[in-house]
Every structure is written in C-alpha cells, then in structure tokens.
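In response to a reviewer's request, we include the raw inputs and outputs for one of the modeled complexes. The two entities were modeled together in a single run.
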Amino acid sequence: MFQFLVDVLMRACDLMLVAIGMSAVYSLMKFPNIALVQYAATGGVLAIALQKAGVPVGVAIIFAVVLTGLLAVILNEFLFNRMLKIGSSTAMIGSLAVSMVFSAAFLVTVGPNPSRFALPVSRPIRILDARITEPQLLGFAIVAAAIGIFAFLYFRTDLGRCMRATSTNEVLADATGIDTGRMKTIIVLISGVMAALGGVAIALKGEVDSQVGMDLLLPVFASAILGGLGNPFGAIAGALLISAAETVVTAVNFGPLMGEVAAFLPVAYASAISFLLLVAALLWRPRGLFVSEVKRV
Amino acid sequence: MKSILLSGVFVLGLSMAAYAQEAVIGAILPLSGSSATQGEDQRRGMELALEKINAGGGVLGHPLKIVTEDSGGRTATALDAAKKLVTVDKVPVILGEFSSGITIPIAQYLLQQGRAHINIGSSSTQIRTLGKGAFSVIGLDDVSGTFAAQDVFADGARKVAVIAPNNAYGQGIANAFAAKFKALGGAITSTVLYTEGQTTYRRELQQLGAGAPDLYVYTAYGKESATINRESFELGLNDKKWYGLYLTMCTADSDPQYVEGQIGMDLNYIGGNGADYQKAYEAKYKGGFTSTFNGFAYDGVMLVAAAINKANSLDPQKIETAIAEIGKSYEGATGPIVLDADGQRGAQPYLRLKIESGKAIATQ
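The model returned the following structure tokens for the whole complex.
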C-alpha cells in the first residue's frame, strides 16, 4: 500500500512543476505554453550533458536550470509575445511547433538513446513495504522545495502580490502602477526554472531521452486543466489526481477475479486514463475542480 | 505498361551484367538506437569477413563490397534503407537486421523485389514462414525457448514470471518458453510484454513481481535492458534469481553491479573451427566479443561470398540456389550451419551462462 503512495507521489513529481509553470504562465499570458514540457526536457538533458563534460552534479543542475529559465525568457520575448499579438490560439499552436523543434534538436544533439546522471549505485532504502533510492528522495526534495519557494513568492512577497494583481485584472494593475510587462517576464522566467527543475527531478529518478518532453505533454495538460488553468496550486491537486488514476489503472490486480495469480492491464493504458480525465474535465469542469479566484473577480 | 516493365527488366539485366565483375551486397544494422551495441558488433563480424574474403582474392575475381545502412532500431528507417539498397545500390543480397520486428518487414520487402535475404541476428519463429529466398544462419526461438524452459525447470524454479518486448521476437519467445515450461509442470505467474523505447519500466516490473515468482525470466534489448536491470534492483526484485534469454544481449549495456549473479542462456557463438575467427576478432578490436552476434554476421557474409562464387553470377535467384546448395553442410565460425527446407538453420547449440564478476561465464 505504501508502495502505491510512493508510486503516485513519484509520478506526481514528474508532472507537478511543469503543470504549475503552465498554469502560472496561463494566469498572466492567457495562453497555455506547450513548450514548457520541453523546458523540462532541456533542464534534464542539459544538466546530464554538463555533468558528462566534467561539471560537478550540483553545479551542473544549477547552470542547466538557470540557462533554461533564460531560454524561456528569450523565446517568450522573440516568439510568443509576437504570436500573442495575433491571438492566444496562434501562440498555443506556435508553442506546439517550438516543442517539435526541441524534440528534433534533442534527437540530433543527444541521439535517440536515453541518458542519465552518472551517480554511484545506491542501495534502495526500505520504508515500510516500499523501496526508494537516494536520488529519488533528492528528486522529491527538489520538487517540494521548488513548490515551497514558489508559494512563498506568490503569497508572501510584493512581487507575488503584483503577479496576482496582474493576473486578476491587467488593466487595473497597470493603472495602479504595476509594471505588468515586467511581471510577465518574471513569471515566464519562474515557469522556465520550475519546468527545468521538474526535468532535473525526472533525470535524478531515472532517465531522460529526446521524447521525454512530448511524453509529458498529455498528463501535464490534463493536470493543469483539472486544477483549473491559471490556478497554479490547483495544478498540484490535478497532478496528484492524474498520477493516482494512472497508478490505479496499472496496479490493480484483476488476477483473483479471473482465477489467475496476476492479471493486469497493459501499462500502455496508463496514458489513456489521463486522456479520459482530460475529456471528462473539459466536459463537466472546464474551469477545473476548483473555481479559481481569478474567475470570481 | 507491360513493355515498360519488360524494358525495366532488360535495363536491370543489363546493369547487372555491367557490374558482374564487382560484387556489392547490402547490410542493414542497428548502428544507433537501443540495440546499437549489438549492431556495432555485427558490423565488426562483417568487417572481419570482408577482410578475410578480400585477402583471399575476393569474389568473382574482385574485392567484395558491403554497403551498410543504419536502421536506427526503427522499422520505417530500415525499410527506407532496404529500398535504397535495392534501387540505388542494386544489391542482390541483403543481410540484417537485429530485432525480429524489423527483420521480418525488410525480408518481406526484399522477397517481393526478388532479392535474397539472410537473417543474421533475429530469432522469431515467424521468420520460418517468410518463403523462398529467406535464409537464417541463426537458430529460431522454437528451439531456444524449449532449451531455456528445460534449463529453468532443471534449476528448480516452479513459479516464474516472464518479461519480454512487445514485438514479434518477445511474443514468440515468451510463448515458446511458457508452452514448454507448463508442459514440464511449472507455472507462469505473469507475462508482461513491455513497450520498447521507454525511459522507465517501473510499472511493468511491479506487475511482474505481483505473483511472487521464484524466478524472473527476462529478455530485452541492450539499453532497455539496462533500465530494466537498474529498476528491478531499485525495486528489490533482484532478491530472486533472474534468468536472461540471450543473456549477453540483456547485460551488454547494464551496469555490472545490477546483473551480478544472473543466469541465462545464449547462443553458442563459437563452433569447432571458430578459433581463428575469435583470434582475429580479439586482435583487431583489442578485447573479447562484446556480444554473441558478431559471429553470425561473419558467417552470413562468408556464406554469401561462397554462394556468389559458386553461382558465378550476381543474379539473386542463382545465388539463392547456391546458398541452399552450400547450406546442406557448411562449417561456420559459429559451428555447423545446416539449412533445412525452409532455409533456416536447423540445429543451434546454446550455452548456459552465469554473470560472475561482470563477465559471462559458461556453466554446465
């Protein structure tokens, strides 16, 4: 049972930071930036590449995350801001196109094989009936810390107040003297950094390859929409729900019903469940499970 | 239309006649992708064969040439490569690939085009039914699955779980193994077929462990196998014994610490007169064999060269007849190769291996 919880959490950690970033960007920019899943991949791939080049793991991670954040700002400045002037759907399709370019670029630079950090072999630690390794724990810690810092920024600082004001009513925020353009750049930077940290956490727990970003797309989207696009902390609940659903689908043993020792649904069905939840959410709760504050104003 | 076809055949005939002196054959290998380690090893076997043939005067009086294409471990890429080899290089014979899921479609395409195909690395039982013009110098899985089931049963395991890739090879060998193991009186707790090319197999492995088996039987391509071995270690599944089908393929890319103590079966890749070949390999590549598959690539090229010389022609049909003729009894580096009526290697010796201090050691 505890193993089940660990699996849900582990999967949720893959999705959470990217989903929060996507929701946060949406709250200010009013378009879901699909390229965020590729910022996650960039974070992981870059950190691994830097470590291979001889940089110590910690430094490699920090460099990769900062570089990815800057990349997010640059792409936003030169591509997405311009596309947004045409329309939010143009920007969304544009971000999908950019994602495909990323996938192709990874294929050319790092090749089709998965890569991982060169870490010493660590014996799994037993906690109740679950087993977990140190790098996996580190991945958890990174995700938890990133969420904590983001929450502090968002709710407890002037910067956060300005961001929330901008997302609630941009014109009014502008009129009260908030530099809304700067707020947008900051939220893009933060979302890029969050996504990259998410990618680093994935890389620490296992491996990344050129497809890791696109594989994240559907579950991350489903998490962000379930949590209510524009509600960054709703995305956490969304990610937990998607992960729980995926894990239930593959972990329920139908064997006893069928008179066999073990009978499971094929693992490929796990991605079908996030599709189903996405469709259900769009039909019945298009604004997410929680009605966001943004909409009430 | 008919006349165009006829003239096409005529032009083709002419062009073949024009190149009759210099023999060029094709190879499609996974030089990148999850089986890149084995693909590179196959290429080494071919390189050694080429050196030996050309040192001995070549084929039809000229040096033999091999055009090698990379499949990337992907069926679509491999098919494109096959089309290129047939239409641009106009080769009469193509050797390859490694994964059964890729070998079968390229062989089907080649047979349609009237070219010969030599399977040097795949073992799916479906290869037997491809038809005339398809040959295998490697034993298929009806033989290997039976060998493994007897071996696992003799080792004392009665409840086993099986994990294999979800393709022609994986399904074939999992079924062959299960059928024989059940016939012996054992039980299969669960069979998991995994989707290739993922970055994690945690979920599959947890499903695999659910039936509490005495032993895990697994087979996976190099880099996927590395992930499976690491994650089974992390999940504690390696408390039980692991038995690898084609063990050296399963362990080639894995960290030695994860696979220490694993047992398994593999091809007996060196026959009675393979010693010279082994020496040549070790001298050229500074070390022992990286996989068990290089010898079959070597034998495939040697067999084709002998057949072209015997046929004294580059016509695919004549080469096929010559291969069938030579294949009645051919002594290869991997042991005696006797092709049956379907063009498949009839008997294939296997080895029982154990990983000790990072090396695969034969045990009996």
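As requested, we also summarize the result in words. Chain A has a mean pLDDT of 90. Chain A is about 75% helix and 0% strand.
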